[in-house]
Task: structure prediction
Amino acid sequence: MRIKMTLSYKGSTFLGSQIQKSSPNTVNGTLELLLQKLNINSKVIASGRTDKGVHATGQVIHVDIPNFWNDIEKLKRVLNERIAPNIKILQIKKATDNFHARFDAKKRVYRYLIKDGEPNPFENDFISFYKDVDFNTLKKNIKLFEGTFNFINFMKTGSEVKSTTREIYKSFAYKHKDYIVLYFEANGFLRSQIRLMVGSLLSLDAKEIQEQLNATTKYKVKPAKPNGLYLAKIKY
Result:
């Protein structure tokens, strides 16, 4: 029986979501080890990978479970009891046999949280601190990313993908209390694409961002810090 799980996790605790040979301390690796203890030996398939330090409030995975785990609410309860405090299963439900968490995803939503000011030990793991952020300029320039572009200049080098073209449906900025929130919704993202887009917003002007998008010029941009990035929602 195939199940679909929605989960949240604290990314600063893990070396990313993808399973690594060098360490079991990844989101998927932690989940698979726990599932094996419950006699569930299927691989965990996620909607996409998140890098070290990146959080999730709405990651989606699928996994095949034996029929004796027909009480999936009990399974959710057992998983949450054993996997706390850095991962939480938000929802678990039956899926069709051909459901695929990654390939069936239509849209992916990320949020990036910024606070203007000095870092503090209570928020450092969850918010990126930057000084003297010009919110009005940022709010204007983030709209440049809406549309279909070749994001070859907004990806981590060494990434292997069939295409570097992505469509961003929505990109906007707003304030919530003391925080600046950057919202990105697209059909998909390249590795480190959002962090490089945020880094561009914080270091380049509108003309330079447009040139980078048009792939006419590549500027040296430092990726924004991972701790402010959240995989918020997967839309099917």
Observations:
- The mean pLDDT is 95.
